[in-house]
Specification:
Keywords: Glycolysis, Isomerase
CATH architecture: 3-Layer(aba) Sandwich
Strand content: 5-15%
Shape: globular
Number of strands: 9
GO molecular function: phosphoglycerate mutase activity
Distance between the termini: 27 Å
InterPro entries: His_Pase_superF_clade-1 (IPR013078), His_PPase_superfam (IPR029033), PG/BPGM_mutase_AS (IPR001345), Phosphogly_mut1 (IPR005952)
Family: Belongs to the phosphoglycerate mutase family. BPG-dependent PGAM subfamily.
CATH superfamily: Phosphoglycerate mutase-like
Number of domains: 1
Helix content: 25-40%
EC number: 5.4.2.11
């Protein structure tokens, strides 16, 4: 029954997904343009002489130089969509500005199933991937979510949408379209009540999977037999060695972490609860930044499909909570008073509706 329902959800939202208007070397692998001849909207260069850690302009453990190549296209959306439900206290007003950050790697895709290099090729989830996304949603169904960021690829967007359908607040995730003025105008919501029961979903190419270049679409086992296991292992698991005409993890991290710093971290600092549905390498890059991992530590980091990871952002620091085993896991809510209060409010609202 759950699978049938989720299939309907997939059909309904797949026609609404959009691609970011930002032009870049990597984003254009999705837009049928030769990716080597296109400008990058904004780049960040890590000073490798200091450290191979992913770094921040606002942190001291490494140094980042911003390259002012072109003006970055900012994400535009209606801030009224970001307000939590009137039944839940607006945590952005809390002095501590504590916020939850949920990271989810998309569920199994059709090319995961076929053992093919996927990269920036836009393929959907398998039935197993749909089930993984639904299960991920159940695990976070009692954790507040005010805004969702996804990559521009459908497997991440499907995961985000299917997960939020399981949330107890029953808010409707709405993909925001900023690719043109017409798209913005035509997708406006004019009911304040409807806005209060919606969650904005912001797609961006910067959170896309690393671009695997000439390996995309190739079978992983056959590629190892052709080029040698050691060579393929270096392409897949090294930090700074890219596959032919593709991205290394380091290159993926530069765009993903820069976007996180500029667009997501300020939301957390304002007390907004954020969910990110993305990919193995873009999420590994962000976790490298959050946990201050070295380049040697991050290459051994493995993320399972459809398993949410919870962080608490408080007083400018990220505290790793791990993965909720289920929506009733006591430890999640014992970790902070605010999460416990949120869950208690959900229980009270549920009792009122049932009475």
């Amino acid at each position: 029954m759950a699978t049938a329902t989720s299939h309907q959800s997939i059909v309904s939202f797949a026609s609404h997904r959009s691609f970011s208007s930002s032009s870049s070397t990597i984003s254009q692998c999705l837009l049928r343009e030769p990716f080597l001849n296109l400008p990058i909207s904004k780049g960040f260069k890590i000073d490798s002489s200091l450290s191979c850690n992913i770094t921040s302009k606002r942190r001291n453990f490494c140094k980042v130089e911003a390259m002012a190549s072109q003006t970055e296209t900012s994400v535009s959306y209606d801030n009224t969509l970001l307000s939590p439900s009137k039944n839940i206290p607006d945590i952005s007003q809390k002095k501590t500005n504590e916020a939850a950050l949920i990271l989810i790697r998309h569920g199994e895709s059709l090319w995961n199933e076929k053992n093919l290099f996927t990269g920036c090729v836009d393929v959907p989830l398998t039935e197993k991937g749909v089930e993984e996304a639904i299960e991920a949603g159940k695990r976070i169904s009692n954790i507040p979510v005010d805004v969702i960021f996804t990559s521009s690829l459908i497997r991440a967007q499907m995961t985000a949408m299917l997960a939020m359908i399981q949330h107890r607040r029953k808010k409707v995730p709405i993909i925001l379209h900023d690719e043109s003025e017409q798209a913005k105008t035509w997708s406006q919501v004019f009911s304040d009540e409807t806005k209060s029961q919606s969650i904005p979903v912001i797609p961006t190419w910067q959170l896309n999977e690393r671009m695997y270049g000439e390996l995309q679409g190739l079978n992983k086992q056959e590629t190892a037999e052709r080029y040698g296991k050691q060579q393929v292992h270096e392409w897949r698991r090294s930090y700074d060695i890219p596959p032919p005409k593709g991205e290394s993890l380091e290159m993926c991290a530069e765009r993903a972490v820069a976007y996180f710093q500029d667009n997501i971290e300020p939301k957390l600092a304002a007390g907004k609860n954020v969910m990110i549905a993305a990919h193995g390498n873009s999420l590994r890059s962000i976790i490298m930044y959050l946990d201050k991992l070295t380049c040697q530590e991050v290459i051994s980091l493995e993320l399972s499909t459809g398993i949410p990871l919870l962080y608490i952002f408080k007083e400018g620091k990220f505290m790793k909570r791990g993965s909720p085993v289920g929506p009733t896991e006591a430890g999640v809510y014992a970790y902070t008073k605010r999460l416990a209060q949120y869950r208690q409010k959900l229980e009270e609202d549920s009792e009122v509706l049932c009475s």
